[in-house]
Design a protein that fits this description.
The complex is a heterodimer of chains A (261) and B (352). In chain A, 36% of the residues lie in helices and 27% in strands. Chain A is an alpha/beta fold and 261 residues long. Among the domains of chain A are: 1-80 and 167-172 and 231-252, P-loop containing nucleotide triphosphate hydrolases (Rossmann fold), CATH 3.40.50; 93-166, no CATH class. Chain B has 352 residues and is an all-alpha fold. Chain B has a single domain (33-330), classed as Orthogonal Bundle (ABC transporter involved in vitamin B12 uptake, BtuC), CATH 1.10.3470. Chain B has 14 helices and four strands. A two-stranded antiparallel ribbon of chain B has the order 1-4. Chain B has a two-stranded antiparallel ribbon with strand order 2-3. In chain B, strand 2 (181-182) and strand 3 form a beta hairpin. Chain B is globular. The chains are: A alpha/beta (261), B mainly alpha (352). At the A-B interface, helix 2, strand 8, helix 5 and helix 6 of A face helix 1, helix 9, helix 10 and helix 14 of B.
Chain lengths: 261, 352
Amino acid sequence: MTAPLLQLQGVNKSFGPIDVLHDISIEVNAGEVLCLLGDNGAGKSTLIRLLSGVHKPTSGRMLMDGKPVSFDDPRSASDHGIATVHQFGGTFPLMSIGRSFFVGAEPTKRWGPFEVFDRKKANEIAVREMRQLGITRITDGDRLVGGLSGGERQALAIARAVHFGARVLILDEPTAALGVKEAAHVLRIILQARKKGIAVIFITHQVTHALTVGDHFAVLIRGAKAADFRKGEKTREEVTDLMAGGEAMAGLEAEIESHLH
Amino acid sequence: MHSPPASAATPGSPETLGVSLGKLLRRPETGSLIGLICVFVFFSVFGGDTFLSVSGLASWLNIAAELGIIALPIGLLMIAGHLDLSVGSVIPASSMTVAIVSGHFGLPMPVGIACALALGLAIGFLNGYLIIRTDLPSFVVTLGTLFAVAGLTLGLSVIVAGSTSVALKSDPLTKMLLGDFINGKFEVIILWWIGAMLLVGYILGHSKYGNWILALGGDKVSARNAGIPTDKLNVALYMGSGLCAAFVGMCQAILYNSAQVSAGQSFIFNSIIAVVIGGVILTGGYGSVLGIVLGTMTFAIVNQGIYYTGFDANWASLIIGVLLLAAVLLNNTFRAMAISHSASRTKTKAAP
């Protein structure tokens, strides 16, 4: 068996005296969706920052293809093929779709002595890549990103990551701010990315969304991994209970029960 | 789930009309074009034939060219999310530099010109460097350099030249290239302005650096994560505005055959006004060179046009103030329309 594409082994992260992550071990393979579940404050954001090169682990190892890696900054994580898409897409609302798609990697052509930004090519590629992810409404790459819906912005950001050869795609609560239909579309896009052989790390607190697309699940509670299971091993209720810390949810149910009677 | 794309753009359907309207609304200069037309019509009516004559044209074009050469790089800075107030003292500093080097000490003009431009680049570098090192707001940093450079100019001029005003006699070639009149009316700097328009238009609209500038103003952190060398870009933009301000100051000294330490303060706000009327937002990330040029012309027309009307010239500031507010509101509206217009066909999908 080959080594997982990305692997954390016993990773700890503390900020001064505060332990935020404790002994986290996870792994994700190419063409697989790993769902990171956890309530607010469970350490999901910190884990994303470790994976995307914003922070470094205090101890523990990160491996890609079985080889230890260390990211000094977000740039070096993206050079390793790790792309992070944030909740609101992390794009530029007042830039055109074509321009924002190619920020930092602009296609150019020669025009006499000048190197000219190839707007037409940029727009074409951006529109085509979004179309491949099922966004067919957008036909004009000159449109402003601010005019896209939340789901379309996610699609644009994911399309961008895929186009620039991301091997690991980290999605931070991509469905949290979306309506039901838009969320369904984003989930479909996640499955498409998986089909392309990308390892997807899907961070969410919406259990239904996770169970729809996930192959592998890890639940974080107060900075530690509370459970690690594969598709079909747990029901929706079990997962919800796990996330809320089990007893807490049972207690709440009892409380509601007593109010009703 | 998806609407069929075929229905999106049938020729002649309302959709096609909608797309071209959307295209127009998306352009940052749409509002400033309307502003320019209004102001031009207003002064054509009240200023009459003299405003529309060649000398009327020259009077506002001369003002527009001097302001425009400074407004262009300031516009780039504002699109990148910064301000540069220090131009107000770079102008007199470079005027004095060229006048002291070539006038007071009598060195050849090219030496004086090189010193003046180098001074502008150096002050720009200092601004940019301080901003990326300290991460302080550019308003505060350039306010500091504005006063510091003004003080240095005054102090050093008195020590070196013994006066706050120095005469400068330029050779005919320099005079012809930088400080003469074409046809007796049009300052030669107008041609330099056109050159600057083409250059800055290329940078912002048609080079990858334009994309970097828009991204830097849109979201600094994302821009950096996308691999844009934001620090270098910031420093380069400040050096550009320093260079252009120094160029204008130097041209003024050559045009008027003398330099004063106090010239230039009006350019601080006037350049910002021209850029904002031109459709650039103060928070950055949006704007165009055509808009900045139109905004500059609008400002210059109001500034000079008032003399061709029967009104007291003091009213010009009132008009500019009202115009500025109207421009900001109009540009905001257009921007909102541009965004909602491109979203208008998602209603069915984005409903929840």
